[in-house]
Design goal:
Radius of gyration: 18 Å
Helix content: 10-25%
Mean pLDDT: 76
Number of strands: 14
Order of helices and strands: HEHEEEEEEHHHEEEEEEEH
Number of domains: 1
Shape: globular
Distance between the termini: 11 Å
């Protein structure tokens, strides 16, 4: 049971990240390859972005705002299979897949906890005793690894060029809906977004059967930065409700790969990967 819940939780994370971060990378970046730290940029956080959001411009404009801020603190709450899962961490919005970084701790209720780090297209997973309290290393570019095949899109979907093309066809509608709501001290406007699941690159990660359409509600500040994203997705007979809160846009983020002494040289995930669905 642990492995099914874990992979579905990772799948929810991958899919929601795909939808929310679809436009990142519009900012020019001359930093060294493989940088895993960012001081962020708070200069435009809270300011009016001055752009109309439509079906054709939504992800482009939101992506520009995210790329300029460069970093965020994320809290994700997921409900599935009768369990509540909470994940919290920091995100570095990169201009390329290799420069995107994520550090997150996920509480799996009665199943314990896990820690995930994503640095330079490598995912590090610490499942506690299952991985000898060390990190299992998964190179998401290694297409021969079944886990890489399943979750490699978590990185690939941060490629701005690919996403610009994907969302031209995937977005079916963007509707401003409801009154503004204050989230973390910021006045936000809810937008309901409907996308064609079959046209979202990586949407199948962690879920074998998705509905035809995926619907999420994104709450944006006047700076076009997401403050909250809610979604409910039923896949393979399981309903997954996910809510993601974003704060501290533009503040310093420091995400590093674990030291070699904390990485296991064995493959403790082998028993899990075979039943990832």
């Amino acid at each position: 049971m642990r492995r099914h819940t874990t992979w579905r939780a990772l799948g929810a994370l991958a899919l929601t990240a795909t939808l929310v971060l679809s436009g990142c990378g519009d900012k020019k970046d001359d930093s060294a390859k493989g940088s895993d730290t960012s001081s962020g940029d708070t200069s435009a956080v809270g300011e009016d972005a001055g752009a109309d959001l439509t079906k054709d411009t939504f992800f482009t404009e939101v992506g520009k705002a995210q790329a300029k801020a460069g970093s965020s603190h994320v809290v994700m709450t997921t409900s599935l299979a009768g369990q509540d899962i909470k994940a919290e961490g920091d995100l570095l919005v990169g201009t390329t897949p290799e420069k995107t970084a994520l550090s997150m701790t996920m509480e799996l209720g009665s199943q314990g906890s896990m820690e995930l780090r994503l640095v330079e297209s490598v995912m590090y997973l610490n499942f506690g005793p299952v991985t000898q309290n060390k990190f299992a290393k998964v190179d998401l570019k290694d297409k021969s690894n079944p886990l890489s095949q399943q979750y490699g899109s978590l990185v690939e979907n941060f490629d701005p060029a690919a996403q610009a093309d994907a969302y031209k066809d995937a977005v079916k509608s963007v509707t401003k809906k409801g009154d503004t709501q204050k989230i973390d001290g910021v006045e936000t406007q809810p937008y309901v977004i409907v996308v064609d699941a079959s046209k979202v690159a990586g949407a199948s990660a962690g879920a074998a059967k998705l509905p035809d359409d995926l619907t999420l509600t994104m709450y944006l500040g006047e700076d076009n930065l997401p403050r909250k994203v809610d979604s409910t997705i039923t896949a393979s007979g399981t309903t997954v409700k996910t809510s993601m809160l974003y704060s501290k846009w533009g503040e310093k983020v420091d995400v590093k790969a674990p030291p070699a002494s904390e990485i296991t040289d064995k493959d403790p995930l082998a028993s899990l990967s075979g039943s990832a669905g």
